[in-house]
Amino acid sequence: MFFLISLLTTAEVLAALHPTTGAIALQHANLGEEGEISANLQFTDAFSPGLSIGFGGAFIAISESLQWGLLPTNIFEVFQFTVLSSGY
Asked: What is the DSSP letter of 71?
């Protein structure tokens, strides 16, 4: 449960900071370099989700093969967590 709370907190912080960092980068760009900064931001926006999904999938695969127990073992646990976290 602690893992899920920390994941949600991290997601909220990153969602709040993401537009801000782009605006700061464009604000501090030198005259004539705005296009390069914008292109770098677009590349990062397109590349980073794929990279994080890849690393996340690899981490899950490794944890399952080493039996670290990061994933629920059956569908009942997933259903139980979903129902309990939704407040029903």
From this structure: S
The tokens for 49 are 């989700």
Neighbours of 13 (CB within 10 A): 10
C-alpha to C-alpha distance for 21 and 28, rounded to whole angstroms: 11
Cβ atoms < 10 Å from Cβ of 17: 11
Q: How far apart are CA 37 and CA 11, in angstroms?
A: 24
| CA distances, 45 to each of 9, 40, 41, 51 (Å) | 20, 9, 6, 11
Domain count, the chain: 1
Q: Which domain holds residue 35?
A: 2-86
Split at pLDDT 50, 70, 90, the class of 8 is confident
pLDDT in tens, 17-64: 777 778 888 889 899 998 998 998 889 888 888 888 888 788 878 877
